[in-house]
Amino acid sequence: MKPNILLITADQWRGDCVSALGHPAVVTPMLDALAKEGTLFARHYAGAAPCSPARASIYTGLYQMNHRVCRNGSPLDARFDTVALAARRAGYDPTLFGYTDTAPDPRGLAPSDPHLTTYEGVLPGFTVRRLLPEHEKPWLSWLKARGTEPNRGCPHAPDGVPVGTIGVPPVYGADETQTAFLVDEFLQWQGEQEAPWFAHISFLRPHPPFVVPEPFNSMFDPATLPVPVRAETPEAEMAAHPLIASLLATLARSHFVAGADGLVRDWTPADFAAIQAVYYGMIAEVDAQLGRLFSALKARGDWENTVVVLTSDHGEMMGEHWAFGKGGYFDGSYHIPLVIRDPAASAGAGQIVRKFTSAADLMPTLCERMGVEPQNHLDGASLRPFLDGKMPEDWREAAFFEFDFREVEGESTKAQFGLGPDQCNLAVLRDERYKYVHCAGLPPLLFDLERDPGELVNRAEDPDYLRIRLAYAEQLLTLRARHLDQTLAFSMVTANGLVTTKG
After folding, report:
1. For residue range 149-178, what is the model confidence (pLDDT) as tens digits?
2. Domains, the chain, ranges and CATH?
3. Which residues are catalytic?
4. 355-358-363-365 Cα dihedral, nearest 10 degrees
């Protein structure tokens, strides 16, 4: 029998914030329970940041160097296959709850088409049951119908305190969050289905603004939380690299706490800890709603025929290196959770995989499970062997991810760095021991993770590490060469007709 497929993304969930992986504070019982029935991937990495580039890697199975979604708003080339298009070929009607942050290919649209005014488009192939873009209007309308009226113009700000206050719960309750709203929408739709289904639930949280209702708001005591890894001062952090200097010089508090003024770097350590506590509470809130969702599927008899993939698009710095958000080259922005539970793959149930895996692996994994072939080259590889309790041959020994910080609409990157847009990018190769960061127009970085797991000391100019740096630069060059688009490269027109190999 064809399985149901449930692809869940929770936006901006750090990969270490899973209690099954031993986090000292975070509590994720529902995710942990899912991992016991499935496979937990401990070293899973996003392909890029921020949202649109990261999601493009999930949906296409391609690295950023190939899908070329560089920033939020970069169009996704219409020639690429996607998980939604593949699901349609497999006989599903893939249905979206939330968002995909996919800017459309403009070449097939008129210049005045409204789809060209927002990057929050829908990935081609999806049927939309409930769209929930960043303005959150459908959720706000739902709240109003329930009799809850958030603050106008600042719906996540609490009542009775100055705007920008950290750690105060909002006016809406735990059963009225955006997460609860999408779970309600999905469960209503799922109850209408009479055939195997494919659903993608794209939760907004724990993405900022950092705010969460009780009981989650006070679930964690800031005074007891681990102190984030960072230099002694923001100024010392900024001295480490021009990209970090630029980030901390401009990173605004308003991106993370509704209505807050000033820069993130000027928050006190106590402020950082208070936000950390809220973020962990937001993860607990999403986890609780996952429990409600999974319980409903079990009660309706669908659980034993449902493949669940639970992941994030990218990570969250959460105070490390005096930053919040995502981007740059630190692991906090790219290490993300992944759990896959397939009732037909019980051999791998309960295991924790510590090999490096990539967001680009999800597309080939889902294609294999649905029994369809991708329509173009993929950079990722199927995770199915891990689910079956096996070790794939020649699996990668390092994580690879990218970040593009070009400014297309303005001139800020040119003014800051004196670089053209094609020089504003970096690529990272990170294995057990070392992490090499190659920047197209800025100085490189090399971290000795055995001696410096917090990525605080750049060894790129250290003569004792020169040979290591060059070796990793060669490895990165080889990786990029091997992942050039192979869609037609393994085909040849001959006197005997078309000859094709898989390489």
Report:
1. 887 677 888 877 888 899 999 999 999 999
2. 4-421 (3.40.720.10)
3. 51
4. 0
